[in-house]
From TrEMBL:
<keyword id="KW-0808">Transferase</keyword>
<dbReference type="InterPro" id="IPR027417">
    <property type="entry name" value="P-loop_NTPase"/>
</dbReference>
<keyword id="KW-0325">Glycoprotein</keyword>
<keyword id="KW-0735">Signal-anchor</keyword>
<feature type="transmembrane region" description="Helical">
    <location>
        <begin position="21"/>
        <end position="39"/>
    </location>
</feature>
<keyword id="KW-1015">Disulfide bond</keyword>
<feature type="active site" description="For sulfotransferase activity">
    <location>
        <position position="143"/>
    </location>
</feature>
<feature type="region of interest" description="Disordered">
    <location>
        <begin position="71"/>
        <end position="126"/>
    </location>
</feature>
<dbReference type="InterPro" id="IPR000863">
    <property type="entry name" value="Sulfotransferase_dom"/>
</dbReference>
<keyword id="KW-0333">Golgi apparatus</keyword>
<comment type="similarity">
    <text>Belongs to the sulfotransferase 1 family.</text>
</comment>
<feature type="binding site">
    <location>
        <position position="224"/>
    </location>
    <ligand>
        <name>3'-phosphoadenylyl sulfate</name>
    </ligand>
</feature>
<keyword id="KW-1133">Transmembrane helix</keyword>
<feature type="binding site">
    <location>
        <begin position="349"/>
        <end position="353"/>
    </location>
    <ligand>
        <name>3'-phosphoadenylyl sulfate</name>
    </ligand>
</feature>
<feature type="compositionally biased region" description="Polar residues">
    <location>
        <begin position="113"/>
        <end position="126"/>
    </location>
</feature>
<feature type="region of interest" description="Disordered">
    <location>
        <begin position="336"/>
        <end position="355"/>
    </location>
</feature>
<dbReference type="Pfam" id="PF00685">
    <property type="entry name" value="Sulfotransfer_1"/>
</dbReference>
Length: 386
């Protein structure tokens, strides 16, 4: 009797420990399941992911997909596959999303967030490779098509890029090179680290600073008809500030004389020759690649071929990666490897422009003509803007 009582107690204890293991497993699986379906997003967020909520739904979903992609096939489990990347967030309102001073050290850089899987609430460490300063930078121009170029490049298995704009060489230079390097994703041997910050092109100090880091850095400039670029720039500002004065009142010093106001940044950024001359004081022309923003839309694969050659990469990104999305009116990416759906850029890329009086556009075209010609001369490329 006594012994059978012991057995009952013994079995009861064993059953209890089995049940607690079982319930712990159920809890872990439930947690993972909820995280993977996105419900963990209601959990407290990191500073970075709070900022990410400013983005379009598309881009937030895109981040989650990228994290899931990376979870599906970690490099160590797929030895035959090309090295996979934990990609950074697609940064849509790029010009505004930066590593702000004071926050930069506490807020995770997008890639760092993804490297630890934090945006999905799952701690997955990526300790492969090392963080390096970029060997190639997309330095400009604002509204040229820099986001499209970076996203297209990120399909390449040998390119790893930080998703948001670091603004190191213009705004946060005093944070030091280690801060900058730490923002970068890890790369394996043979992979290129990249970033894009379009405002570098028009920042006087940027070329000297980039050269101080590494004078061998490859520089990519996506250029677009400066008139359309100015309208695109204005459209972006207008979207954030609907009370903005009209384009013509900002572009012209005086509507009766038609004199262009070159102090307006939307106009000034389009003086490509002037900005390039500043860069050429520190870098030879051979370090630059000028990508046509127009051809990036009409022939993305063709432009990507040039970019890959310039970066010394195998031509991996080709026409099989693109399709033209009729609704968006722009090329989008077909299903990238490991993804279940095609990918277009966010709503703030490729948006309709307000109607600008044709005489104002003509006035701007006349204004830019000599600067454009000078730019064609220096770069050795005719972009056909006039
Ligand atoms: N594939 C694709 N999809 C969407 N948009 C595309 C694409 N290729 C180039 N573009 C053009 O990119 C323009 C935005 O340029 P940037 O990415 O350099 O803008 S930013 O400076 O980072 O804000 C954006 O300007 P807007 O048309 O004024 O929105 C687009 O014309």
């Amino acid at each position: 009797m006594g012994c059978s009582g012991c057995r009952v107690r013994f079995n009861f204890g064993k059953a209890l420990s089995k049940a607690s293991v079982f319930f712990t497993m159920v809890l872990i699986f439930t947690y993972f399941f909820y995280c993977l379906t996105g419900i963990c997003d209601s959990a407290p967020r990191t500073l970075y992911s709070q900022r990410a909520s400013d983005r379009t739904d598309y881009d937030v979903l895109d981040d989650r997909r990228r994290v899931l992609d990376d979870l599906r096939a970690p490099p160590s489990l797929a030895p035959d596959a090309p090295p996979r990347r934990n990609r950074a967030a697609s940064d849509d309102a790029d010009a505004e999303r930066t590593h702000a001073p004071g926050q930069g050290l506490t807020r995770r850089a997008p890639d760092s967030a993804n490297e630890t899987g934090q945006s999905s609430g799952i701690a997955v460490s990526n300790t492969f490779g090392s963080k390096k300063v970029p060997q190639a930078i997309i330095v400009g121009v604002k509204k040229g098509g820099t986001r499209a170029l970076l996203e297209f490049l990120r399909i390449h298995p040998d390119v790893r890029a930080v998703g948001s704009e670091p603004h190191f060489f213009d705004r946060f230079y005093d944070k030091g090179l280690e801060w900058y390097r730490n923002l970068m994703p890890r790369t394996l041997d043979g992979q290129i680290t990249m970033e894009k910050t379009p405002s570098y092109f028009v920042t006087k100090e940027a070329p000297g600073r980039v050269c101080t880091m590494n004078c061998q850095t490859k520089l990519i400039v996506v250029v677009r008809d400066p008139v359309t670029r100015a309208v695109s720039d204005y459209t972006q500002t207008l979207s954030k500030n609907p009370g903005l004065p009209s384009f013509q009142s900002l572009a012209l010093k005086n509507s009766s004389t038609g004199v262009i106001d070159t102090t307006w940044s939307a106009v000034r950024i389009g003086l490509y020759a002037k900005h390039l001359e500043n860069w050429l004081q520190h870098f030879p022309l051979s370090h630059f690649l000028f990508v046509s923003g127009e051809r990036l839309v009409t022939d993305p694969a063709g432009e990507m071929g040039r970019v890959q050659d310039f970066l010394g990469l195998k031509r991996v990104v080709s026409d099989k990666h693109f399709y033209f999305n009729q609704t968006k009116g722009f090329p989008c990416l077909k299903k990238p490897e490991g993804s279940s759906r095609p990918r277009c850029l966010g709503k703030s890329k490729g948006r309709p422009h307000p109607q600008i009086p044709s005489e104002v556009l003509q006035r701007l075209r006349d204004f830019y003509r000599p600067f454009n010609h000078r730019f064609y001369q220096i770069s050795g490329q005719d972009f056909g803007w006039d």
